[in-house]
């Protein structure tokens, strides 16, 4: 059942975080639903601007609608990830999405507010909710590219003003994460001091962590052993998710890890069976492996086992 992110955040705030997983195709969708059902977790499906144009936006929407029928016990939101204003407006008018993210974080503070406010007004008129971003994460993911020099942490004082002036429903904060597989070098980690101050300024307000894949080193090693060339990749320690959830983070975005699972499965399969040219055997392996990954990640997020509580809260 498709619900809004606001519904999920009410249940999660201060206790656990909801996993927000990007998908692009049938195999990812099936693995995602299976993993969340196996771990009894509510979840958020994220559709990016890139995934909407990968084939056609209606194709991916059709796959998700079908999965909703195949897995009637699932409770999830459908969310546009990193949308520009035009894409947000298209998604709001489509009648399919339950929430959108407007990312005008590359603009000035006042321009970000101006753009975000327009999206918020349009979304709220349709009963949808909006996520925005303040501060800038470094790294590269699809059309999002921010150099390390341009990356900046969210200013807690600005965060309060931003939310007040825009009426946005949740806020993606820059607290040290970055997009892509190369998030950290050395011993850097999350800036929990900044996150704690944002929560103090915005009590009981849902916060979001982008760029939160953990980039499992076993996955990287197996990819490289099967012919990959991913050197120096390092992600967020998922043991820190619980601490972030206590500080108001209710949504944690995970994309890169899913791509690594896909890459590892396919590289190993065709390395080990070079005569195979059928896409289905590798696809079946991936769906199983991705479901296992999702279920394990939900344990770290604290969302595993929460589905019955969410269904009860929503009366479904």
Automatic annotation (TrEMBL):
Q: What is the lineage of its organism?
A: Bacteria, Pseudomonadati, Lentisphaerota, Oligosphaeria, Oligosphaerales
Q: Which residues bind Zn(2+) 1?
A: 82, 179, 210
Q: Where is the active site?
A: 81 (proton donor)
Name of protein = Fructose-bisphosphate aldolase class II
The residues the record assigns to binding dihydroxyacetone phosphate are 180, 211-213, 253-256
* Xref: InterPro entries: Aldolase_TIM (IPR013785), Class_II_FBP_aldolase (IPR050246), FBA_II (IPR000771)
Co-factor requirement: Zn(2+)
The species this protein belongs to is Oligosphaera ethanolica
Q: Which NCBIfam families match?
A: cbbA
Assigned EC number: 4.1.2.13
Q: Which keywords accompany this UniProt record?
A: Lyase, Metal-binding, Zinc
**PANTHER family of this UniProt entry?**
D-TAGATOSE-1,6-BISPHOSPHATE ALDOLASE (PTHR30304), D-TAGATOSE-1,6-BISPHOSPHATE ALDOLASE SUBUNIT GATY-RELATED (PTHR30304:SF0)
């Amino acid at each position: 059942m498709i619900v809004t992110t606001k519904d999920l955040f009410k249940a999660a705030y201060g206790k656990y975080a909801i996993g927000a997983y990007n998908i692009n195709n049938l195999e990812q969708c099936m693995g995602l639903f299976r993993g969340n059902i196996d771990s009894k977790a509510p979840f958020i499906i994220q559709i990016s601007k890139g995934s909407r144009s990968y084939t056609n936006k209606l194709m991916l929407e059709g796959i998700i609608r079908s999965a909703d029928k195949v897995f009637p016990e699932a409770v999830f939101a459908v969310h546009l990830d990193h949308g520009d204003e035009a894409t947000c407006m298209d998604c709001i008018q489509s009648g399919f999405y339950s929430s959108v993210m407007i990312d005008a974080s590359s603009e000035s503070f006042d321009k970000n507010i101006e753009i975000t406010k327009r999206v918020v007004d349009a979304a709220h008129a349709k009963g949808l909710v909006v996520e925005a971003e303040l501060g800038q994460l470094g790294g590269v993911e699809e059309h999002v590219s921010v150099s390390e020099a341009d990356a900046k942490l969210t200013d807690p004082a600005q965060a309060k003003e931003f939310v007040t002036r825009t009426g946005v429903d949740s806020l993606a904060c820059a607290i040290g994460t970055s997009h892509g597989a190369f998030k950290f070098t050395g011993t850097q980690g999350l800036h929990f001091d900044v996150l704690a101050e944002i929560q103090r300024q915005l009590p009981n307000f849902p916060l979001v962590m982008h760029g939160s894949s953990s980039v499992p080193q076993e996955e990287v090693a197996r990819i490289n052993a099967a012919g990959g060339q991913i050197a120096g990749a390092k992600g967020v320690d998922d043991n820190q998710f619980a601490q972030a959830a206590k500080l108001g983070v209710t949504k944690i975005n995970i994309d890169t890890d899913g791509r690594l699972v896909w890459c590892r499965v396919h590289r190993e399969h065709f390395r080990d069976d070079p005569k195979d040219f059928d896409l289905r055997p590798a696809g079946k392996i991936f769906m199983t492996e991705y479901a296992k990954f999702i279920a394990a990640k939900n344990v770290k997020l604290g969302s595993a086992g929460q589905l019955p509580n969410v269904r009860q809260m929503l009366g479904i």
